[in-house]
Design brief:
Elements lengths: L1 E14 L2 E6 L2 E7 L6 H13 L3 E2 L5 E3 L7 E6 L21 H18 L3 E3 L6 E16 L2
Parallel strand pairs: 3-6, 6-7
Antiparallel strand pairs: 1-2, 1-3, 1-8, 4-5
């Protein structure tokens, strides 16, 4: 699975003019399931997200996790993270999981996140979303889980 993690002071997802997910301080996570991914990769990704130490401690060092700061998780599906641009100017998305598998893994990671963390919001799978965020830092971290 692939993810792009952004430390935010606030973020929200809007679909057709309505806010479907919103958090204050926390992590905006763009999530992509690739062909062949399973729940095992989703579990590893979630464990990494919850423990990733990218929030500042009292000394100003990135040493605290989203759990430590009691921040939110905003999980947004984004198959375009699997883009392959090596063949030309039009990206190929053949590495992305088929939509039905992608939906299952996205819903699985959301369910597991909600069981493990008190503040979890989401986008809407396969919707045309507007993602608003205030990137804190900015801090943006790509993650690949195999």
């Amino acid at each position: 699975m692939l993810a792009v993690v952004q430390r935010v002071s606030e973020a929200k997802v809007v679909v057709e003019g309505r806010t479907v997910g919103e958090i204050g301080q926390g992590l905006l996570v763009l999530v992509c399931a690739e062909r062949g991914d399973s729940e095992a990769q989703a579990d590893k990704l979630l464990a990494k997200l919850l423990k990733l130490r990218i929030f500042s401690d009292q000394a100003g060092k990135m040493n605290r996790s989203v759990q430590d700061v009691q921040g939110g998780l905003l999980l947004v599906s984004q198959f375009t993270l699997a883009a392959d641009t090596s063949g030309g100017n039009r990206p190929s998305f053949t590495n992305a999981a088929p939509p039905d598998q992608g939906r299952l893994l996205y819903e699985y990671i959301v369910k597991q996140a909600r069981a493990s963390h008190p503040i979890v919001a989401t986008g809407e799978f396969a919707a045309d979303m507007r993602v608003h965020l205030v990137n804190d830092g900015p801090v943006t971290i790509p993650i690949t889980v195999r």
